Amino acid sequence: MIGSHQEILCGMAFVASVLVMPILTIGVIRKTKARLQNRIGAPILQPLFDLMRLFTKTETLSSTASWMFRSAAAVNVAVMLILSATVPWLTYKPEVPGADLFLVIYFFALARMFTVLAALDTGSAFGAFAASREVTLALLVEPATVVSLSALAALSQSSDLNLIFASSNRMLEHNPVVWLLVGTSLLLASLIELSRMPVDDPTTHLELTMVHEAMLLEASGRNLALAEYAQGLRTSILFGLAAQCWLRALPGFWDMSQIVRAVCSVAGIVAIAICVGVFESVAVKLQWRKVPEFIAYALTMSFLAALIALSGGLLR
Amino acid sequence: VFTLLPLFDAFCLLSLVGAGLAIVMGSRAQGFFQALTAFAGSLLVAIAILGSVYPLFWHVVPPIGFATFPIHLRTDSLSSMFVLLLGVITLTISLFSGGYLKHLEGRINFSQYWVSLFLFLLSMTLVLVSADAITFMVFWEVMSLSSAALVACEHRQHRVQRAAVIYLVATRIATGFLAAGFLWMHSKTGSWLFADWNFGITSTWLPALLLLLAFAIKAGIWPFHIWLPYAHPAAPAPVSALMSGVMIKVALYGLLRLLVGGGLQCPPLAYLALFLGTVSSFWGVLFALVQHDLKKLLAYSSVENAGLIMMAIGLTLHAKALGLGEVAAVAIAASLFHIINHGLFKSLLFLGAGAVDAQAHSRDLIHLGGLSKRMPWTTMCFLLGSASICALPPLNGFASKWQMYQAFLLATFESNSMVDRAIAFAAIGVLAMVGGLAIAGFTKAFGVAFLGRPRSRSAEHASEVPISMVAAQAIPAVACIALGMAAPISLPVMNYAIAFVGLTLLIHAVVLAGSRVRHYSTWECGYGQIPARAQVSAESFTQPIARIFSPVLRYKLDVTIRGKDRRHFPEYVSIEPRMVSLLESRVYRPALYLIGAAGKAIAKLQAGSIHLYLLYVCITLIVVLVVGTKL
User: Fold this and answer.
1) Res. A314: pLDDT tops 50
2) Is this prediction's pTM over 0.90?
3) pLDDT (mean) for B344-371
4) Which candidate, A246, B187, B374, B557, has a CA 20 to 30 Å from the CA of B513?
5) B451 and A66 in contact by Cβ < 8 A?
6) Which helix (DSSP H) or strand (DSSP E) does residue B561 occupy?
7) Is B515 an interface residue toward A (CB < 8 Å)?
8) Is residue B303 a contact partner of residue B287, using CB atoms and an 8 Å limit?
9) What pLDDT does B508 receive?
10) Whose CA is closest to A83, among A105, A113, A116?
């Protein structure tokens, strides 16, 4: 069945975003950092050129690795594609039935499990220690993410993300504080989840301290290309989710037209990418032991959001 | 109706005959007893199906004596669900035993094994279908003792003796609470029939508390869980699968049948259940994470899952007491579904650990590694089990965890009091953190045992288990997938599963399959082939998490560096993590010490001197006389 022209247009824009946004997000972060360091920097589309180059390269595969190692990248891309269709990271995303909050959280966990197992599969201690750090970060971040999204779910009385992030939501409209808190909590959580600064510096190339990049140490060629693309898409989805929350905190958002909202949602991701680039240029990496203290900020935001959800429900 | 009773009688007879024959020829005809177990398992499945379709209540008058205590039995959908789980797992272990028991030859007494196993199956079934307290109590005792005998199979080893004693003590305490609770309820109602017991009135709160404690001990709920991590590593794998998969569920069945079914209306007890469940889910998963014995890890993970189920039961009790029908319905569905799911994936994982033990001659992660190339099918099944227990979609663990989240989410806006809402939010946070810890624990267990390079010679020479043992693991694995896809939840999980598998295969075929591949060793900084010992160990993998939770785990790193210039040229470096169980060191050991000291003090009274005893008699006489004249 063919929908209206608008739906087709939305669908095409969405497919284009899934392909372009990962590259754009990573490219913008890198460009911002380069400019702040007085370098011209690589073109914004450099991640795309990197992917293309990796695609043509021969893959070096550890002889210790089993089927698990190569399947992890495929699983990651598959999960991220599913998530891109279910997580409301863009306003023009087509609605998929059953986009449930807890399903989304555990799909992220599924991708993470495969990444971690792939790192352990090669028998490399670098990858394994990165995997160990990854699961540590994940378990600390999980409560913040789940509680802050549950606050929204409690206010709209459903865990369906389509409903929570609907273009008009009686319970959540004109409730900017909760959106602001949830957005902040999610952004802080996603910085940790994506192992970016201040938890980990993805550009140090010191295997001993890195999290995500060290897990990919053994990946090469197309395998690495897939993993990089999946990570880019994960970055865009998580930034997009935070941007959507912040946009909903703007007083004018609920009266905007569809087109303006669509432009805003892309602009939001780019803006967050620029902010992250600036932050990564000025901040220093936290000592590993101090990371739980940083995570506490995200957790506090989510608790505050939950408190509002508690009292907001009472006012009903 | 006409076929259930003969089937049931056939099952009882079969178990008794099996136990009897095992005394005589248990050590010889292994195949015969496996077939008998399989037959018993299929009878149980049939009983469960018939029992749920035609609920039945009947009673049997024992032929000799005890005619005043007829045995009341009942099958309905609740007990049938548990009987079905028992039947499926019995079938699975009967398949598994064939190959597995061979590696225990000479180590265990097979007569003891089969006698106890048949009695264990019989007693669990009868506990599930009993409709009065006396029958329940008698078979509960048989269940406890036969399972203790199964734990003690390898009784020549010191650690097994210790495990059996600890387990026996735990069962004694549980039985004590249970008997007290039952007697109390009988004195209140004058009936032994469960159907006559109504927990809806305030005066039944105390007996309800006793029953709750009894079932919590048997279910391995914090702080009574300490027997689990001893009993499971000591028991053979099929026994662990039965005990963790079914027996602790029988205790939870007792809670559901008596307290939830009896209409308990007691907010304090509901809070207690919720609290105990929350703590044991967190405690269990945290201790599971730091174990390096595969079966001990799984035992602690059972504590976690029993805790999750207890949380759901606590929420059910609470919602029922407050009249929140929708919350109660979702919560009880979550608890029942998770009972089934945990029974399946935990027995799958225990069988996997048994297969590893049989082939690589160790369950210790320090000696394992690289089994994925040597035991591909076991690896596949263990991975599915791990993913299920981590609640990853689209498997069954996710479905019941989702229901749990939904129940607590409903409670965040359905309940009227602010405190209850806050508790529900906190529970959601705990569920999320427990989920994160479970993923950390099981990626460690699976990754260290099955991936990478073998850490010992015996792991290097391991080979795949025989086809029957693979099939035994495949049954619950397939059930995990099927229950996850066809889960009775309002999510199109099936569509997601198809999308996930389809996309993964598509990407694999389109992108990865066509890639040119060059095989090379893992990056070792140019030092040449490094030894397998240089891989991450189970302990170092979880060290960051253990450090964060060190107050609970009492985790310490003992670092010793010696040498002339010890900073730059150490001659001797040793790092050893140290951990003591907080409860055991701070609560149980002091308590045991106190009991021992009190016993010694009392023992001084009996000094063996006739003069002293005459003095006691004299004092007693005077006291009695004084008291008598006063009255």
Assistant:
1) no
2) yes
3) 91
4) B374
5) yes
6) strand B555-562
7) yes
8) yes
9) 87
10) A105
Q: Give the per-residue pLDDT at B524.
A: 80
Q: What six digits make up the tokens of B548?
A: 């964060």
Instruction: Mark yes or no for CB contact B523/A218 under 8 Å.
Output: yes
Distance CA B346, CA B341 (A): 8
Tell me if chain A has a CB within 8 Å of the CB of B537. Answer: no
Minimal Cα distance from A144: which residue of B? Answer: B429
Does position A316 have pLDDT exceeding 50, yes or no?
no
Q: Where are the alpha helices (DSSP H) in B26-76?
A: 30-53
How far apart (Å, rounded) are the C-alpha atoms in residues B288 and B282? 10
- Which three-class secondary structure state does DSSP give residue A197? coil
pLDDT tens sequence across A239-268: 999 999 999 888 788 888 888 888 999 999
Q: What percent of chain B has pLDDT over 90?
A: 45
* B507 touches A: beta carbon within 8 Å: yes
pLDDT in tens, B490-512: 778 888 888 888 888 998 888 88
- Of residues A123, A143, A157, nearest to B413 (C-beta): A157
CB B150 within 8 A of CB B22: no
Residue B418 vs residues A158, B371, B407, B429: alpha-carbon distances, Å: 19, 52, 17, 17
Q: How many other C-beta atoms lie within 10 A of the C-beta of residue A39? A: 10
Q: What 3 state SS string does A247-277 have?
A: HHHCCCHHHCCHHHHHHHHHHHHHHHHHHHH
Q: Does B519 touch chain A (CB under 8 A)?
A: yes
**Strand-pair partners of B132:** B193
Instruction: Find tokens 């089969």 and name the residue.
Output: B114
Comparing C-alpha atoms, which of B308, B380, B386 is closest to residue B346?
B386
The mean pLDDT of A35-60, rounded to a whole number, is: 92
Residue in B with minimal Cα distance to A115:
B443
Length of chain B, please? Answer: 631
Q: How many percent of chain A have pLDDT more than 70? A: 97
> Which of A62, A150, A225 has its CB closest to that of B520?
A62
The closest of B273, B307, B304 to B287, measured between CA atoms, is B304
Taking phi first (over 0 means left), then psi (-120 to 50 degrees means alpha), and beta for anything else, what does residue B212 get? Answer: alpha
B460 touches chain A (CB under 8 A): no
Say which residue the tokens 């009255």 belong to: B631
